[in-house]
Design goal:
Helix content is 51%, strand content 0%. With 74 residues, the protein is mostly helical. The protein has a domain of 46 residues. The model has no long low-confidence stretch (mean pLDDT 83).
């Protein structure tokens, strides 16, 4: 698999700073696990990639409590 897949759902462009749910999800995860924001982003992106989910959709589900992030690796 190529290192960069710009149209993949887990691509960084899918995680815009202006998109509040993803930004909120980074903060929620960072606080919950006592990790920095960059580590939280990396973990969320890896989880989205592993589960073939759009990062923004995963972030919204995590914020609203419908996605427990079972098996998240930090």
């Amino acid at each position: 698999m190529p290192l960069a897949e710009p149209n993949a759902p887990w691509a960084p462009s899918a995680f815009r700073a202006s998109d509040t749910p993803p930004s909120d999800s980074k903060g929620k995860l960072a606080e919950r696990l006592n990790i920095d924001m960059e580590t939280a982003f990396t973990a969320l992106r890896a989880y989205a990639r592993a589960h073939n989910r759009r990062l923004s959709d995963l972030a919204r589900a995590f914020i609203d409590g419908t996605e427990p992030l079972t098996g998240l690796v930090v």
